[in-house]
Amino acid sequence: MSKEVFDELLGKVGPLITKVDTHLRMSIGPAERLAICLRYLATGDSYATIAFSYRVGRSTVAVIVKEVAGAIWTALVEECMPVPQVEDWRAIAAGFQERWEFPNCVGAIDGKHVVIQAPANAGSLYFNYKSTHSLVLLAVVDAEYLFRVVDVGGFGRSSDSGSLRNSAFGESLRDGSLQLPPDTVIAGSERRGPLPHVFVGDEAFPLLDNLLRPFPGRHLNRERRLFNYRLSRARLVVECAFGILSTQWRMLRRVITTSPEVTELCVKAACVLHNFLRRKTIDMPSRTPIARSTDEVTPTLCDAPRMGSNNATRQSIQQRETFCSYFNEEGAVRWQANVV
């Protein structure tokens, strides 16, 4: 992060983290408070190490990290990670079509386990299949490796499918309140009729009307193997985004010893900072300009209740078969036959 970018970030976050001087002591300035929080996110060093480097108390570092991480999320989320609207989804779909030759794709979805120290009296809530304790970061990523939707705080024992089912995003995906564009006919494939806009995920996710997953099994015919390859090729952007995130913010490569509440704030701050810095790299506006109606209420993602099974509907299965046929016929690319 260059000095200019740090100053820009300080201008956005500074008003939220500035403290008042008193006649007893001078407060720690916003620049130093921001630097302490960024140091923790970027290195994952212990509070004691950071306290020694900045000559402040360990408890002071703990308070600063919690407050500043929350302020970073509050200050940047509307600019760098707004709730996507219809035109935003269309722009994402155009990006996947251009870069990854996958039509009507509005994002790649996956989960990442953020390793934490086992909280007191938590039992097996945070114990995952890797035999560590973790929180789950569920994310939707676009073709430019930008996080569009994040959900942090799922228990480590939950699978990706369970995290999706219990998240506000999963509820909105199932009830159709995400404001996805209407079904669209793919250019050059008019005979197949309109196809829905979909998210792509791995085998851990259920097959839904707007969520594609690979065909299961090892003994698949060539057509299905080609479909799985094309889907996995588009889905890899979320894996790459997680790699970029953990490389920049190396807190995610260590065992985080803070409470789950503070860990959640830090992970959300790292995600929104990832978008803030990446937009500088790709020179991209904060969001797709859209015309807003004065009498239209912007939908929000609310807390979701528990939901039912992951059984796919006949419509979902038919849609996957249609995409499979498309990738093997008019949607085929010249090099895919050499890969599968």
UniProtKB/TrEMBL annotation:
<dbReference type="InterPro" id="IPR045249">
    <property type="entry name" value="HARBI1-like"/>
</dbReference>
<feature type="domain" description="DDE Tnp4">
    <location>
        <begin position="109"/>
        <end position="275"/>
    </location>
</feature>
<keyword id="KW-0378">Hydrolase</keyword>
<dbReference type="Pfam" id="PF13359">
    <property type="entry name" value="DDE_Tnp_4"/>
</dbReference>
<dbReference type="InterPro" id="IPR027806">
    <property type="entry name" value="HARBI1_dom"/>
</dbReference>
<dbReference type="GO" id="GO:0004518">
    <property type="term" value="F:nuclease activity"/>
</dbReference>
<keyword id="KW-0539">Nucleus</keyword>
<dbReference type="GO" id="GO:0016787">
    <property type="term" value="F:hydrolase activity"/>
</dbReference>
<comment type="similarity">
    <text>Belongs to the HARBI1 family.</text>
</comment>
<keyword id="KW-0479">Metal-binding</keyword>
<protein>
    <submittedName>
        <fullName>Protein ANTAGONIST OF LIKE HETEROCHROMATIN PROTEIN 1-like</fullName>
    </submittedName>
</protein>
<dbReference type="GO" id="GO:0046872">
    <property type="term" value="F:metal ion binding"/>
</dbReference>
<keyword id="KW-0540">Nuclease</keyword>
<dbReference type="GO" id="GO:0005634">
    <property type="term" value="C:nucleus"/>
</dbReference>
